[in-house]
Amino acid sequence: MQSMIRRPDVIPVDSFDGVLFDLDDTLYREEEFVRSGFRAVAVHLSSHGFGKEDKIFGDLVRLHRSSPRRVFDRWGFPRGMTLSVSELVEIYRGHVPKLDVIPGVRQLLSSLKERGVRLGIVTDGIPDVQFRKVSALGLRDWIEHVICTGSQEIGFSKPHPAGLIHGAESLAVEGKKVVYVGDNASKDAKAAAAAGLPFVWARYAHGYYHHIIPTNATDVWYTVECVDELKRVLLPE
Q1: What is the per-residue pLDDT across 107-137, written as a single tens digit (0 to 9) for each?
Q2: d(CA 4, CA 1)
Q3: What are the two backbone dihedrals, phi and then psi, of residue 156, each rounded to the nearest 5 degrees?
């Protein structure tokens, strides 16, 4: 494939000893979590007599496709329903998701581990929710550290670099020998640049942020459009 774009002035990738990954839409498709959460809400509501599961699920999915914002607020509550929007949000966030990684990701992580590359995740979001995603994806066999910027330990979401700096330190690898891979060319790229880390933009077609153009093009080290391209960047022949 010819879509892989590289800055001409970058350090060779084989000089890196650690890789930090974003989570959502980088290692798995975030839409899977959304659908899993809507299914959990639909199951709960139907079990309490507030409609048919598939109808509720389909309505929520359609609302989300039209706009991902405030889906439960826009959904037409059945007459007599006593649950509030905040309670539906808690069901959505608190459910145990059914997820799988993007095809090729497990092989990529395994190959990196075999070469002695240390691996971590730095992700925004609610810590408990993000940790459940990591568990559901079965990533602990490869990922040594999961850093959630929403934790009290960090307290700053990207584009603040605190999470990435902490992630690089957790891998016990010199900062300039760690690369960050993420799907958001705005906040992920800015955070990596501020932390002094090269950034690989995982611009996958399914991603919610694939259309966002980086504010500063020099913040992006490589642009890849599939896992095979990412493998060619991180594991050059």
Answers
A1: 999 999 999 999 999 999 999 999 999 999 9
A2: 7
A3: -135, 120
Phi and psi at 186, nearest 5°, equal -95, -75
Q: Is 5 in a helix, a strand, or coil?
A: strand
CATH of 5-28+100-234, one of 3.40.630.30, 3.40.640.10, 3.10.129.10, 3.40.50.1000: 3.40.50.1000
Diameter of the chain by CA atoms? 63
- What is the rounded CA–CA span in Å between residue 68 and residue 25? 15
- The residues near 74 (Cβ < 8 Å, ≥ 6 apart) are 63, 67
174-211 per-position pLDDT tens digit:
656 899 999 999 899 999 999 999 999 999 999 988 88
Tokens coding 1 = 């494939």
Q: Report the Cα 176 to chain-centroid distance in Å.
A: 23
* pTM for the model: 0.91
Compute the distance between CA of residue 120 and CA of residue 164 in angstroms, rounded to an integer.
10
